[in-house]
Amino acid sequence: MGQSLPPLLPPQASTVAVEVDALYALLVSITAFFTILVVGLFLYFGLKYRRKSESERPIQVHPPAWLEIAWSVVPLLICVVLFTWGVRLYFTIYTPPKDAITVHVVGKRWMWKIQHMSGAREINELHVPVNTPVRMLITSEDVIHAFSLPAFRVKRDAIPGTMTDTWFNATKVGEYHIFCAEYCGTKHSGMIGTVYVMEKDAYQKWLAGPNAGLPPAVQGEKLFTELNCISCHRNGPTQRGTWPTLRQPWRAYQAAVSSDSVSSTASVRFASRSARSSPTQKITCNPAARAAFANGWPRMPFSQCSISPGSCKSCPNTSGIM
């Protein structure tokens, strides 16, 4: 069997997609109708009333008044209908409902960094619940991008130093494309991602993360072990360094180090911290030898770690990724 042709338009997966496609279809139909009408009449009259001899003189014809009124009023009414429909649809797309959930989107060559209000972060992915309005606050870190969701018929520019917004309400569970619709450099075509539309229960489970349902103390113990915090804060003979332990109050630790000579090294410059996405879509923390002291007090240097977005919303290694 032969392969079927790809669809002319993306799937209609939002509340405004059907109306956007209807307006687009009307514009194309009107354009095609008048193009065929004008070109057809042009060819017909050109052939019918062509000059047949040198001595022939054309007869002056005065069109009736109703015809002149018709070809002026009909286009005017068509333009008014299209304008009214387009303006109403525009304000619908760019006026988010008051109960919409908010998602922050930052464009950066060449990725989309997304953060939910709960703190969950994603790179080139967006998880949203079905049949729920989602408002997106969009900006850029470098050049102008355009956050485009073709299946939802939504596109909004991401402009450095400016916050733009738009919204959508996904109506079908599934996976849909994210594109950058504004040329932004050599890897513009690779600035893509995926929207995952989920059932509401599944979305809440995803949003809660892998530690959902565990008591806070158990969650903290799990992260304390997984992130290897125990190597420096174990409070035992195997502890590495002289960092504070869980049993030592912070003020007591400050008093212990205040008389030490290291407190005079507060002028140490800080190395910049970088956080970038790995091919597995994890946040990879790779700081460059950050200094161990800040404001005169010892400060924990960042460790090498790979943390899945949303698994640890309070970890200092993932804070500030946006």
Task: Describe the protein's topology.
Blueprint: H1 17-48, H2 65-93, E1 101-108, E2 111-116, E3 121-123, E4 125-129, E5 133-140, E6 145-149, E7 154-158, E8 164-169, E9 174-180, E10 193-198, H3 200-208, H4 216-226, H5 230-233, H6 250-258, E11 275-277, E12 283-285, E13 293-294, E14 297-298, E15 305-307
Parallel strand pairs: 1-5, 4-10
Antiparallel strand pairs: 1-2, 2-3, 5-8, 6-7, 6-9, 9-10, 11-12, 12-15, 13-14
Helix pairs in contact: 1-2
Could you list some keywords that capture this structure?
single chain, 322 residues, alpha+beta, Immunoglobulin-like, five-stranded mixed beta sheet, 6 helices, 15 strands, elongated
**How many strands?**
15
- Binned strand content: 15-25%
One letter per element, helices H and strands E, the order comes to HHEEEEEEEEEEHHHHEEEEE
Gyration radius, to the nearest Å? 31 Å
What would you call the structural class?
A: alpha+beta
If strands are numbered along the chain, what order do they take across the biggest sheet? 3-2-1-5-8
